[in-house]
Design a protein that fits this description.
This protein is of the alpha+beta class. The chain has four helices and three strands. The termini are far apart. The relative contact order is 0.11.
Amino acid sequence: MKSQKKEKVKTGPFDPEIQAAAERIVEAYDIVMRSEDGRWVGHALEYPEAMGVGNTVQECMAATRECLIAGVGTMLERGQTPPVAARQNLRTEQVNMRLTPEEKALLESRSRAKGFRGVADYMRSAVLAEK
């Protein structure tokens, strides 16, 4: 007698594991909503291209989450890495700026004098201290 392999039944647009992973990822996203022409429009900070619209805040939230799950699920299916939740506070963004040689020397000197590893840590600390 042949052993029968149990096949996973696909219940939605995604494999159940991908669907569950997409839902977990989206749950951590911060959704921003605004009123526009009597309707609500929402998107996630992490994934602004995926938007939802609703007549109420609740409808908008549901539509936005649905759109985000579709986007994240598609990324997971393709082997891509979805955006990290903003509240995880991972430093994934980089800022580049042009300086004169004198400005660069001054920043490096001040950062070392204050005990920072480099200009980036010094600048980040100085800006965040102003919050």
